[in-house]
Amino acid sequence: MKLPLSLVAGAVFVAQSAIAAPPACYNFSPVNQFNVQVSASFWNPIISYVSARSKVCMKLKLGRTSADTTSFVLAREVDFAFSNHLFSPERDKMGWTVFGRRNSPPVHGQIVVPADSPIRDIRELAGAAVSFPGPEALVAYKVNYAQLLRADIPVNVVFAGNHDAAFTQLFAGMVKAVGANSQLVANWSGREGSAFRVLWTSPPFNDLALMASPRVPADQVRAVANAFLTMHNDPDGKRVLAESAALIHAPVPLSFVAATQADYASYRAFYADLPASLR
Asked: Which contacts (CB < 8 Å, 24+ apart) does range 184-193 have?
């Protein structure tokens, strides 16, 4: 039995529309900079505020580790992210766009040991166990480990899953050093009262980017961006930001500012000179 051409065309149109239709509620995945509980407590109130203010439904989607969370992005299971994992030449092709970042000083890769450690030079780490948050951590792992490779310092790499776990390993004596993001070193010191000695510091990189996938309509991206970028001017938003900043002992008041792809040129330059084993 042959269906009328009009019905076939209509069915194709409906199927294509269903495929192209954006989800009823977008997933937002921030890189796990803290343990899962702290990460969720930090981001959930912010996302609830942005969703209500923008009238664009968003919900938090976190993996157990930063690599798990980034895998959601790569599998196209999320449409908004807070990340610096998408600036490699291959991932640039996915078409994600930058619309903002935290209003905080640039971050640095740092290789750190406890303040009372006898180790005072990164060359003393040869053969030692060094913990990193995970293989996707650009500043904390790739920047720091690239320096160790360039300096011909072999170490035993340990992936802890996030910064909190890496620092816990360090102060439990399970590893000799940690490759970290300078912002997270300061946050841990404020939260836990631990003191570090910095063995090496990288050049600066802008803080992680707020990003949207190409599937999100432009008007919804603008609405979400506006909610993030004006949050600190609204009493309710300012309160949420203050509570989240207090949770992680942020050294400066928390807010978000506009950003573009150009603000992440240093990341792309880093990839251009990255050792082949880390690409």
From this structure: 184/33, 184/34, 184/140, 185/110, 185/112, 186/251, 187/34, 187/248, 187/249, 187/250, 187/251, 188/163, 188/164, 190/248, 190/249, 190/251, 191/248, 191/249, 192/167
